[in-house]
Amino acid sequence: MATNEYQVSGMTCGHCELSIREEVGQVAGVEDIQVSAQTGRLVVTGPRPVDDARVLAAVEEAGYSAVRSA
């Protein structure tokens, strides 16, 4: 499994987490999403590395910004 970690700006609540989860969940190859408004952390897991550009675009589509952190 490949894991990508991101730091998301602007999340404040569970609704924020849900919005990001819904958008990122549509990215090809994503099997698991962990997102926390408290820490601003987004972890995306798939069988192969997921395209960063697509994950970042999905986060932006949800109304937030993110950067790859690990």
From TrEMBL:
Gene3D superfamilies: 3.30.70.100. CDD domains: HMA (cd00371). It holds the Pfam family HMA. PROSITE patterns: HMA_2 (PS50846). InterPro entries: HMA_dom, HMA_dom_sf. Residues 2-67 form the HMA domain. This is Zinc/cadmium/mercury/lead-transporting ATPase. It comes from Oerskovia enterophila. The lineage of its organism: Bacteria, Bacillati, Actinomycetota, Actinomycetes, Micrococcales.
